[in-house]
Amino acid sequence: MTTVQAQACRVIVADDHPLLLRGLADLLQAMPQVDLVEATGSGTRALAVIRDRKPDVAVLDVSMPDVGGLAILRAIREAGLPVRVIFLSATMTGRQIAEAIGLGVWGLLLKDYASDSLLDCLREVIAGRKWLPEDLVTKARRGGGVDIRSDIAGLTPREKEISALVCRGFSNKAIAGMVGSTEGTVSIHLHNIYRKLDISSRTTLATLFVQYQSQISDTA
């Protein structure tokens, strides 16, 4: 697959959280191979800019008050626009992930890790490679959904505690100190967590656990 283009990649970013939007815009402006077309908190505005200026890549919040990322991706697909979409999300359901993949999304980023991973993700997408957690994608494709609550319910209290700390970005060494254990024991717990959830990465664990916490919060 060919790269987007040899010259600067034209990018739009849309997110309704002002601080995150500003941070992502600053990251993109500091990237030599990126030309930031616009940073907006409105999905409606983002879609208008995409239709009018046809950027190479659109980095979009999945959930915005007016028009969300999935609706924008559908519109891009229907119009046949050559725009590669990367989704930002605090949480996505398995059904949303499956739909996004079906619509041809190029990247999925958890908001908590966006500042650390966006540039790597963008470089891959510019080079014509998708940035999708493989095991999360596999789970989303199984029947079009992911039963997060059932999966997490099968973890022990200590495994849930460690999962929550992984979700917050702590290393194994830091987690060991926080739970009063050894780094090796934390690694064993993570191995068991991965096996029970049928996953293989910290990124996917964090994504699943954020979804689980969101579902618990919604039913509280």
Automatic annotation (TrEMBL):
Q: Which GO terms describe its molecular function?
A: DNA binding
- Listed GO biological process terms: phosphorelay signal transduction system; regulation of DNA-templated transcription
SMART domains xrefs: HTH_LUXR, REC
Give the matching InterPro entries. Answer: CheY-like_superfamily, NreC/VraR/RcsB-like_REC, Sig_transdc_resp-reg_C-effctor, Sig_transdc_resp-reg_receiver, Tscrpt_reg_LuxR_C, WalR-like
Keywords carried by this UniProt record: DNA-binding, Phosphoprotein
Q: Where is the Response regulatory domain?
A: 10-126
Entry-annotated residues carrying 4-aspartylphosphate? D61
> Source organism's superkingdom?
Bacteria
Q: Which residues belong to any copy of the HTH luxR-type domain? A: 148-213
For this entry, the protein name equals LuxR family transcriptional regulator
This chain's source organism reads Novosphingobium lindaniclasticum LE124
Instruction: Write the lineage as a comma-separated list.
Output: Bacteria, Pseudomonadati, Pseudomonadota, Alphaproteobacteria, Sphingomonadales
